[in-house]
Design a protein that fits this description.
14% strand; 6-stranded parallel β-sheet; THF_DH/CycHdrlase; Rossmann fold; THF_DH/CycHdrlase_cat_dom; 2 domains; 10 helices; hydrolase; EC 3.5.4.9; 287 residues; NAD(P)-bd_dom_sf; single chain; alpha/beta
Length: 287
């Protein structure tokens, strides 16, 4: 393979996500026809961070296209943890709201974990509560964290056999790194978590059959850190449409690789919408 020409097959998250959203739209229409209920996703934004505003608007637009209603709540940058918790508690108790998304990160003075835990588990369609994490870890019913869930769906779409494979996760955040490891473990992968204190990181990543980059640092993992033939999942998104993986060099080594944008990002939104419809269906059935 000549220099600069990727040898890896691109994992097209946009195309896979489109199929998931189409099915979610059909399910939403069926629920409306059968029960007269339109699934509703509530988004909560604290402050006016431009990237967060864009993400929320994108999720609202995708919801509308899928026949999913949306409700948006904006709180000022100065909002307290108590005010945010009260907002999320109110939405959790509102029968017309079926799913809740708190756009993160929140301002640093807010206790993000306390805010997440104010979301009722049956409405935690972003999979951010401790209840959802425990459900993922124990294989019990519940909602997967949206990005990790999207990663698993993308691996499935490309028929990646996970059983017995060595998965290395670079990053240990509670809404990405940790839960994606739990989901991979549940599929019989052998999972190694790496982080800022990991010694000789490259020695570990070079052993990975499945390498997940979730560290939040642009182009952090280069081709030198990738095992030949590995599946590389870039879950990072940094300014300038750059992921956590140096795409050109990694693509020379990988067998499958996600682009940024167009890889993991669309899958996150697709799983969020799918889980919102599932939440609505469950809440209607429960009465």
């Amino acid at each position: 393979m000549s220099a600069g020409i990727p040898s890896a097959l691109l994992m097209d998250g946009t195309a896979v996500a489109r199929r998931i959203v189409e099915q979610a739209a059909a399910d939403a229409a069926a629920l409306k026809a059968q029960a007269g209920v339109t699934p509703c996703l509530a988004t909560v934004l604290v402050g006016s961070d431009p990237a967060s505003v864009t993400y929320v608007r994108m999720k609202q637009n995708r919801s509308a296209k899928a026949g999913i209603g949306s409700r948006h709540v904006e709180l000022p940058e100065t909002a307290t943890t108590a005010e945010l918790v009260a907002t999320l508690t109110g939405l959790s108790q509102d029968p017309e709201v079926h799913g809740i998304l708190l756009q993160h990160p929140v301002p640093p003075h807010i206790d993000e974990r306390a805010a997440f835990e104010a979301i009722a588990p049956e409405k935690d369609v972003d999979g951010v509560t401790m209840h959802s994490f425990a459900a993922m870890a124990f294989g019990e019913p519940g909602f997967a964290s949206a990005t990790p869930g999207g990663i698993l769906r993308l691996l499935d779409a490309y028929s990646v056999d996970l059983a017995g494979r060595h998965a290395v996760i670079v990053g240990r955040s509670p809404i990405l790194g940790k839960p994606v490891g739990m989901l991979l473990l549940a599929r019989d992968a052998t999972v190694t978590y790496c982080h800022s204190k990991t010694a000789d990181l490259a020695a570990l990543t070079r052993r990975a059959d499945i390498l997940v980059a979730a560290v939040g640092r642009p182009r952090f993992l280069t081709g030198d850190a990738v095992k030949a033939g590995a599946v590389v999942i870039d879950a990072g998104y940094n300014p300038g449409n750059v992921g956590d993986v140096d795409f050109p060099s990694a693509a020379e080594k990988a067998s499958l690789i996600t682009p940024v944008p167009g890889g993991v990002g669309p899958m996150t939104i697709a799983v969020l919408l799918e889980q919102t419809v599932a939440a609505a269906r469950w809440q209607v059935a429960r009465g």
